[in-house]
Design a protein that fits this description.
heterodimer; B: mainly alpha; two-stranded antiparallel sheet; 3% strand; globular
Chain lengths: 169, 193
């Protein structure tokens, strides 16, 4: 593995914090991630079955406007992808791979990657955001939301890591 | 005082999407270079093996927090025009708890899954499809959850406003906690490696 090629976590943290601060200053809001996938979900559902999508009250918040994909968060996620790709390329650490714990089968990893993703998508909607939009942005604003989310997330992670002791270790 | 720039109409919606691309670019660059596109590092904290996630996260939070409140105090940023993350206590508590499980199982959170994909990880793409499906699942069951989803709303409540103290008291406290946390993590890592 590319063990020592990463930047110091404190350097990355300062860079990330300055990015968030600049976003506050320029946009008047913070960074996010999960809502972009909720918008894509709404648009995909509408493409497949417009009538069904139209009946979903929660998705109406995205689908009432003209072009739902012309959204700030969707563009931010596109930028995130390009930024991460650039980071992997300049450090020569880009590898096309199916990453999994060494003891796990490919089928097992497909299952954890998918079910974990479903849980993230669902939980992110319930919490009105994720690690980026609620924990990082809300935490930096000292909003109660950010700190409630961050504490619940870490407590849960530690509990379930004790339950699934061999999942990643 | 003419910031947040967008809120004061210094540029329009089209230009805001370019800002989104630029902000996202640096977000992704720092996540990936910090090692947060790697599911082994992302889950390492829960097994007390790798503390990259809390180190990056709390450093970023403190930098942004002190910068934000400093700009506010210096009247360089109009805090009343800042969109504060709204608090809905119980949905965010339960959501955060479910999210922690999803993060552990997937090995990613939403932003880091995109960073993982950017570094070439196909499993992250599977997680992204899962997140899209999970959002649909939420929309499908939303009528049954709406009551809970809208409950325990505290609006734009912040720690300083609820505790009735100056924001620098809270920031100083967080700096102290994070400092102690970083110190013990560094010591722990030196011992176990």
């Amino acid at each position: 593995m590319e063990k020592n090629s990463f930047w110091s976590p404190y350097v990355s943290g300062i860079g990330l914090g300055l990015t968030l601060l600049a976003t506050f200053y320029v946009m008047g809001k913070g960074l996010g991630a999960s809502s972009a996938f909720s918008i894509v979900s709404a648009v995909a559902t509408q493409k497949i079955d417009p009538e069904y999508a139209g009946g979903l009250e929660y998705f109406s918040r995205y689908l009432t406007g003209g072009s739902p994909l012309k959204d700030w968060m969707v563009f931010e996620i596109l930028g995130l992808f390009v930024g991460a790709l650039t980071g992997a390329l300049i450090s020569r650490s880009f590898r096309l791979k199916f990453d999994k714990p060494s003891h796990m089968t490919v089928g097992g990893r497909l299952f954890t990657a998918l079910t974990g993703g479903i849980l993230l998508g669902f939980a992110g909607r319930l919490a009105r955001g994720c690690t980026s939009g609620v924990a990082l942005t809300g935490g930096a604003q000292l909003a109660i939301a950010g700190w409630v989310f961050v504490i619940a997330m870490f407590v849960s992670g530690f509990i379930f890591a004790a339950v699934f002791r061999r999942m990643w270790s | 005082m003419n910031s947040p720039l967008y809120e004061y109409g210094l540029f329009g919606e089209g230009a805001s999407l370019i800002v989104a691309l630029v902000a996202g670019f640096f977000f992704g660059l720092f996540l990936e270079r910090g090692g947060l596109g790697n599911p082994h590092k992302l889950t390492g904290v829960f097994y007390l093996k790798d503390f990259t996630v809390p180190k990056v996260m709390f450093t970023a939070m403190l930098v942004a927090s002190s910068g934000l409140y400093l700009l506010g105090d210096l009247k360089l940023l109009d805090m009343t025009r800042l969109w504060i993350v709204p608090t809905f206590f119980w949905p965010q508590m339960v959501g955060g708890f479910l999210f922690g499980l999803g993060y552990l199982v997937a090995g990613y959170c939403p932003g880091t899954a995109v960073a993982g994909l950017g570094s070439g990880r196909i499993d992250a793409l599977v997680t992204i499809f899962g997140m899209i499906a999970g959002s649909l699942l939420f929309a499908v069951v939303y009528p049954a959850l709406e009551h809970f989803y809208m409950s325990s709303g505290l609006g734009t409540a912040t720690l300083p406003s609820v505790l009735g103290v100056n924001h620098w008291v809270v920031i100083a406290f967080v700096v102290l906690m994070a400092g102690m946390m970083f110190y013990s993590m560094e010591r722990f890592e030196r011992k176990t490696h």
